């Protein structure tokens, strides 16, 4: 039976698992697993991740991360509304950071990312953003949105190098952590 009155079936278009894993030979984006819990929790304790990633919780333990993987993360992947993914090393599969698709709409989604401190300086974020754009195209999204705070020029450079364009000027916005920050918005047309 088809969609009644042409209703849009988002679940078919937002099957994140159908486009995973995706790799460029250096970095892989894949679904999170329980094996990532300790590295994810450790990464969230980094001062820069705490300051710039705007994570919803103040503290993450490996058990909290495992519970999220089995709960909210699995639910979001299943219904196509949220994809909290692992950025891993393509050769060793070791955890490098996190890439998130959220605020998923019919034509676009917002992405966020962070990389653990021991993996910075290797252009991991740039590789991950390029792979995220490839995923978004396969999912038939037309745009990817991203934002960073004014005082994060490193993220701004990464976004611009990955083909995102700044949209407007910095303005106060509520970020995923619930705080209000001076945010700069970016858009990548796919």
From TrEMBL:
PROSITE patterns, per the entry: GNAT
Molecular function GO terms recorded: acyltransferase activity, transferring groups other than amino-acyl groups
Membrane-spanning parts: none
Annotated ranges, domain N-acetyltransferase: 27-187
Pfam families according to UniProt: Acetyltransf_3 (PF13302)
Keyword Transferase: yes
Superkingdom of this protein's organism: Bacteria
Record keywords: Acyltransferase, Transferase
PANTHER family: [RIBOSOMAL PROTEIN US5]-ALANINE N-ACETYLTRANSFERASE (PTHR43792:SF8), GNAT FAMILY, PUTATIVE (AFU_ORTHOLOGUE AFUA_3G00765)-RELATED-RELATED (PTHR43792)
Listed name of the protein: GNAT family N-acetyltransferase
